[in-house]
Amino acid sequence: MPPAWDDAMEGYLAWTRVERALSKNTQLAYRADLTRLAIWMGDNGRPDPVGVRHEDLAAYLVALHAASLDSRSMARHRSSLRQYFRWLVAENLIADDPSGLLTSPKFGLRIPTVLSEAQVEKILAVPDEGNPLAVRDRAMIELMYATGLRVSELVGLPLSGVHLEGGFLRVRGKGNKERLIPMGDQARELIVHYVAEVRKPGGSTLFLTRRGTAMTRQNFWERLVTYARLAGVRGKVSPHVIRHSFATHLLNHGADLRAVQAMLGHVDISTTQIYTHVTRERLKRLHAEFHPRG
To answer: Other CB atoms closer than 10 Å to residue 105's CB: what's the count?
Structure first.
C-alpha cells in the first residue's frame, strides 16, 4: 500500500474508534475495504488520496463489479469510501470530495434464511444433559433463540448483564448502545442450571470454555452447526440464522414490529421490516398448499 494512503487510513480508523465508537468488527471491515481501495489506486497511478478524482472512484467500482462482488458488497464498499473521503475533506487533507456524485447500486430484496420452529426444537434436543459442555451449548442456543442476540453479543455477554430474577439481559450492541431484552423462562432455567452446575468460578463473561476462557464466535458457530447436522437439519445453519428465526417467529405469532426492532437493536425499522417479507412468503406458501383454489 502506498505510504500516503496508509497514513491517511490509520488516521481515519483511529477517528472511527474514538469519535464514533465503532465495533472492532466494523473497523476490520472498513480496514479491509480501504486497503483494497488504496492498493488499486496505487496500482493505477494514484499514490496519494489528494489526486483522486470522481472518475477514479467510478473506475474502481467498475473493477469491483468485474471481480464478481455481489450488489450488497458493492454497496458496502461505496459506503466505506464515501465516509472516508468525507473525513479527508473535514480534516483538510483534500480540498474536494470525489465520492459525492457516486450513485447507489441497486439490488433486490434478499430474504433471510430462517429455520422452522420444529427445526429449532430438534437442534435444542440434541445436546446431552449429562455432558457439561453440552449443557453450556444448549443454554447458549436457547438464549440466542430467545433473545435474538448477535453472536458477538452472546459470546461476550458479561455476567453483570444477566438479571436472572428480573428475567432480562442488559446488552451493549453496535455503536456501544445498550438495550434490555427479556429472556423467557426456558432460557432462564437453562442458564440457572448452567451457572449452578457447570460453570466454573472466574471470568467476566457468562459462557466459558472448559479452560475457563471466553467462548469465541467461531467456536460457538462450529458447535451449532454440529448440533444441526446431528438433528438432521439440512441447509444453512448459523448464529445469524438463529437470530433471523427469532425475529420471524415472533412476528408469526403476532409480535409488534417496533418491539422486535428494539430487541434486535436495529437503528432503522426498515432493517427489521425484512422479516415481514418472510412472514408474507410463508403465508403465500400456506395459501398455495392448503387453499382449494391456491
So the answer is: 17
For the domain that residue 246 is a member of, what is the CATH number?
1.10.443.10
Does the residue 110 lie in any domain? Answer: no
Q: Are 260 and 290 in contact (CB under 8 A)?
A: no
141 and 226 in a single domain? The answer is yes
Higher-pLDDT residue of 194, 287:
194
Instruction: Quote the mean pLDDT of the chain.
Output: 87
Inter-residue contact 179 to 265 (CB < 8 Å) = yes
Task: Give the pLDDT mean for 180-196.
Answer: 94
Q: What CA–CA distance (Å, rounded) separates 258 from 80? A: 28
- At position 73, the amino acid (one-letter code) is S
Looking at the 3D structure of the chain, how many domains does it have?
Answer: 2
**Residues annotated as part of the active site:** 150, 174, 240, 243, 266, 275
